[in-house]
Design goal:
two-stranded antiparallel ribbon; 106 residues; single chain; mainly alpha; 5 helices
Length: 106
């Protein structure tokens, strides 16, 4: 109910139920939908998940294709929101900045 009312943290939490199939059958389309809603409200974990999906293509089957420029923009947004150190480390694990440009480790 809170997710449908626009509560970002509830939306972000709901995505994990759809992603992992807890209480619902796994559903990538609904997972992506809720991640996008929560990310639009600056939910950092949802933004990170969308960034990872942009790099890995894990949501390509539902139309969210690999997009390096989008991933780079999402990474920047996470840094600007001053994410916790463990989340920033997670981003660094995917790549690194060289001469001001993000280079993914793929």
């Amino acid at each position: 109910a809170k997710a449908e009312q626009g509560h970002a943290k509830a939306q972000g939490a709901l995505t994990m139920f759809y992603k992992d199939g807890v209480g619902f059958p796994p559903d990538k389309s609904k997972t992506l939908q809720w991640f996008q809603k929560a990310a639009n409200q600056q939910d950092i974990l949802s933004i990170v998940e969308l960034s990872e999906g942009s790099l890995s293509g894990s949501y390509e089957s539902v139309g969210y294709t690999k997009d390096f420029a989008r991933a780079k923009s999402l990474h920047r947004q996470v840094r600007e929101l001053r994410a916790e150190p463990n989340i920033l480390q997670w981003l660094r694990d995917f790549g690194e900045y060289k001469s001001g440009e993000y280079v993914p480790h793929l």
